Amino acid sequence: MEQEIGTSLNSIDAENTRSHNSFLNSKQRKLLLAAAAISSACGLAVELLLGTLASYLVGNQALSYGIAVGGFLAAMGAGSYLSRFVAAKTEGRFLQNQLLLAFVQVELAIAPLTALLPLGLFALFVLDGSIWLGLVLVTILLGLLAGLEVPLLTRLVEVSEGVREALAGVLALDYLGALIGSLLFPVLLLPWLGMFPTAFVLGSFPAFMVFAIGRSFPQLRRWAYLGLMVGVLLCTLAPISIPISNNLENNLYKAPVIKRIQTPYQRIVLTRQGQDVRLFLNGDLQFSTLDEYRYHEALVHPAMSATPNRKRVLVLGAGDGMAVREVLKWREVEKVVLIELDPAVVKLATRHPQLVQVNNKALTDPRVEVINADAFTTAPALKDTFDVIIADFPDPDQEILAKLYSDGFYRRLMGRLTDSGVLVTQASSPFFAPKVLSCIAETLAQTGLAVHPYVVDVPSFGPWGFVMASRAVVESDKLELPVATRFLTPNILHHLFELPKDVLLGNTKVNRLSDPVIVRYQLDSRWVSY
Fold first, then answer.
1. Cα–Cα distance, 220 to 224 (Å, whole number)
2. What's this model's pTM, rounded to 2 decimal places?
3. Which of 13, 231, 236, 455 could form a disulfide with 208 if both were Cys (CB 3.0 to 4.6 A apart)?
4. Sheet holding 257-262, edge to edge
5. Residues 392, 395, 397, 407: which is the catalytic one?
6. Which of 494, 503, 491, 457 minimizes the C-alpha distance to 295?
7. With bands split at pLDDT 50, 70 and 90, how would you rate the model's confidence at 325?
8. What is the pLDDT of residues 52-88, one digit of tens each?
9. Rounded Cα–Cα distance for residues 332 and 415 (Å)
10. Residue 345: CB partners within 8 Å, gap ≥ 6?
11. Is 392 among the residues known to form the active site?
């Protein structure tokens, strides 16, 4: 009797399995697994887009990505939990239909939100709203919806294949999609399309996925056409997002924008008001043509004057060509090596008429060699040694920039400096970030060099700090200035290292690769009043 009952139960299980297997054919199964990959790729790309946008707007890269990625993942967890209430009391083919319907509805909600919310976040920033609160709300909303995707797809596949096979298949494609999205955004979408068109294109993927699923499942045919319509609409509107975002961006600057470039590294904006042309990188002012000569003369000439030899000069950053222009004023210079990470900056400096006029075509001088690479790894690996090394990096407000002001980098760079050579670096604002100048001086001193911090007033920036370092102590009263300048004089040069009374040194830690304290010093609360 027990044997008969067991045989009957096995027959029923086999019949149920055959019935379940009929729910999804091979094409439908592959389509749902592809949907897992596409959903994951779009979700990961959106996380990176939101982090990039927030860091561009407010500069705090670590916090921006922390909220964008961490908040998104936490919301996905909540969305995954909520998925258990979808079609909770339904079985069989009705379960499949409800799960399919729920999935396409989630995708149709994600599509326009992915396209529009980043643009809304940008508008919020322009209107002086709370960017952090906006970022949290956007990540929660998109993360909740994204968290529903994988559980719904897993349950759909489970109907035909069981839990083990469903989890293995869906999760494998989910992780593969994450890899694709993490590479697709920075390598192709952002540099080719720009920030906001990328958001619209990413939003179109879920919509087109609804179209493909609807075509494969007859009960979803009308949803398929809705997905197609939404996908086509978002792709059509993607180019329109450019003038919309440009008009919003114009409100961030006090002068008309004449050039915008989005590169894999940064957002480049050039503005012009009369004779005043200004370069901004990720929203931060790099120079004004009205007073840039003050900054670049102060950066270059004290170091050039402090060494008896100045045949070979290494310039790090400074792809705009202004610092190189000042270096080339010294007749003894035989070779200048410029290492600039972003080739778009060099291209702009060699082709834009206003910049070419101001930098005197310095980057096309036959003595100048331009290397587009990361100075952190490339400069210490150079075979040549240099009489002067000039570091003109962006302010260290992100960990990725802090390494360029670290003890480890300076120590490796010392191998490229001749015995009588001099190194100089820009050192941010001694008023708005008072500890940065001291931190850089302390860090360079840790390498055994004699440090010479100094401050110069640049109207566009206010008081600005620099640190010069050499193996021997520099006697400022012996510095000479045999080149044409607009700001520096021999008298200024002789008193250059007399710091203002409110610029205090000391009480700062050495900036190390393992402990980038300079980022905290740079993000001083005084910037709020700037």
1. 6
2. 0.82
3. 231
4. 257-262, 267-273, 276-281, 284-288
5. 392
6. 457
7. very high
8. 999 888 877 888 999 999 999 999 999 999 999 998 8
9. 22
10. 268, 281, 319, 320
11. yes
